Amino acid sequence: MLDIKWIRDHPDQLDDALAKRGADPVAKELIALDDRRRTHVQRLQELQARRNAASREIGKAKASGDAAAAQKVIDEVAELKAVTQAGEEEERRLDAALTEALAVVPNLPLDDVPVGADEAANREERQSGEKPSLNSPKQHFEIGEALGQMDFEAAAKLSGSRFVVLKGQLARLERALGQFMLDLHTNEHGYTEVQPPILVRDEALFGTGQLPKFAEDQFRTTDERWLIPTAEVPLTNLVREQIMEASDLPLRLTALTPCFRSEAGSAGKDTRGMLRQHQFNKVELVSITTPEKSIEELERMTACAEEVLKRLGLHYRVMTLSTGDMGFGARKTYDIEAWLPGQGAYREISSCSVCGDFQARRMNARYRPEGEKATRFVHTLNGSGVATGRALIAVMENYQNEDGSISVPDVLRPYMGGTGRIG
After folding, report:
1. Superfamily (CATH H level) for 119-422
2. pTM to 2 decimals?
3. Is residue 338 within 8 Å of 314, Cβ to Cβ?
4. CATH 2.60.40.60 at 4-103, yes or no
5. pLDDT tens-digit readout, 13-26
């Protein structure tokens, strides 16, 4: 969430930044809401001041023996109390209206983010690794179904479309990918492993920006909890309504969890295979840091995610997303796109974003700089480290053999009981 004080001081800068994201101007509307709230609060303060003064006058009138004057002031205080109570209710309504209006305004992109309406304006930063040389490569679902270890029909009978049943060595391979990633991030990259709840309340999704604007993208339970769309939600909310010491930062957390997304608006997209599922597993990376270190932390986090693909021997590229392709809460995002020979295309396998204090304001997550009494909002970052289902796709397509088998990358063989080939 953006700071209304900053908006009042920089209305043109806000609307210019929103225009880069393809969003309508809102500064005038937000300032008008804030003006109404401020005017009302000032009036309430004046009423309260008069009520306090009148209360003192009652005592003076009684002390002087003027019962009529005392009763007149008593009646005034009673009237002021009723007016004040109604005014406090209106203040809460005006506060809520301003919060609701601010809650649907996206974060502002950093200056170095490419401006554009969609992914066509994304900027390539670098590539790593070599594309494999394969004869007539197949897509992952063709390989998996031929092996009898990837079953979409069985999943459809159980749950409908956009689900899959993995069996045998393919199921073990995805599990191996997740364990490898967790070991890498905890042992070498300094992240602390967390096993968070995968059901959360409204407040948690609001804190990271999925609510209220993107409710249709989520799955809600009958007891009004939500299935997490990513472990970013519970991990980031671990610092909700807290004041941390600067010496405790950066805080780096990782988790391997199931994730659930309704895929609203994706009808007809990636209907075959595992690329776009309602349920999938992902290793998430979250960092909580100071404003001075957040950009540096973005580069570090992206490098941690890249290291996963390097050790798997996968060819990939890193893209800076344009203003029109970037997520709601991000100020800057790097997408890591793995090469999929079966598709003959790059597909996103990780996305790393810096959010500034956008989420921290929604969560009221702060820290106290060393030697200072005042607190500041932390900066938050999140990234995939990486999506295990998409990593499975990439391994299957890049390590496929002409006989239909799959070679297991060296780094995963210890997690596969030494198995070097799935056939």
Report:
1. Bira Bifunctional Protein; Domain 2 (3.30.930.10)
2. 0.93
3. yes
4. no
5. 999 999 999 999 99
Query: Which sequence positions are flagged as catalytic?
Result: 261, 276, 348, 351, 390
- What distance lies between CA 381 and its chain's CA centroid? 8
Dig out the tokens for 321 from the structure: 């997303």
Rounded Cα distance, 131 and 129, in Å: 7
Q: Quick count: other Cβ atoms within 10 Å of Cβ 41?
A: 15
Query: What are 405's two structure tokens?
Result: 């088998």
Tens-place pLDDT, residues 104-115 = 999 999 999 999
CA angle 210, 213, 217 (to 5 degrees): 60
**Domain segments of the chain as ranges:** 4-103, 119-422
User: How far is C-alpha 409 from the geometric centre of its chain's CA atoms?
Assistant: 31
Is 290 in contact with 112 (CB distance < 8 Å)? no
Give the C-alpha separation, 402 to 411, whole Å: 22
Q: Which amino acid is at 409?
A: P
CA distances (Å), origin 422, targets 168, 302, 401 = 9, 30, 10
CA distances from 367 to 237, 242, 305, 373, 379 (A): 14, 8, 27, 10, 10
d(C-alpha 108, C-alpha 119), whole Å: 18
